[in-house]
Design a protein that fits this description.
Largest sheet: 6 strands, antiparallel
Number of strands: 6
Shape: elongated
Strand content: 15-25%
Strand order of the largest sheet: 2-1-6-5-4-3
Structural class: alpha+beta
Radius of gyration: 27 Å
Number of helices: 5
Helix content: 25-40%
Order of helices and strands: EEHEHEEEHHH
Distance between the termini: 42 Å
Length: about 200
Amino acid sequence: VLIADRDGRILHGNSNIERMLGHPIRLSADADSYEEWVGYHEDGRRVASGDYPLAQVIRGKADHSQLDVDYEHGNGSRSWIHAIAEPIRDENGERVGAAVAVIDIDEERRLQDNQRLLIAELNHRVKNAFSVTQAIVNRSLRSTVDPEFLERLNRRLSAYAQAHAGLLGKKIGRVSFDDILDEAIVPIDPRRLRTHGAE
């Protein structure tokens, strides 16, 4: 935890934050001096003083602010932290400072990255399996069945593959029911199917 006064001057930080960040507490003079705490956004940009949650609260831009930061330790290594800031108020409700809690989320971020990689690999392999299945079906049935039947079968296989790709998208489990219906059901025979209702 870090504590700052109403201008953003850092007054105190506990030993846990020093251990987590790998350097002594930097007693920044005000909210414009937080760039001496070296961190990076997810897109690689350096975190500016005003981006830090503590600065957001001190400057009155938010009563609650949080940010994931790829933080640079004293030895130059980096790890992910989550910073959450809120104001400190006196008995009259006036803001007299702010506090920020810092949480080590490096392991969690690594697990998320691994999960994204595994989902992408699984999606790629399943797409290949669908393609091979479709090729086998076409090769095996091309000369023995009605072309219209083969086209319907291919449409159904493609719809199933699309639905699978939607479910294993970037945010697993967050695809809408309407999207699944549109991808998996409607292409099979859009003349006979109709969807309606809440998403």
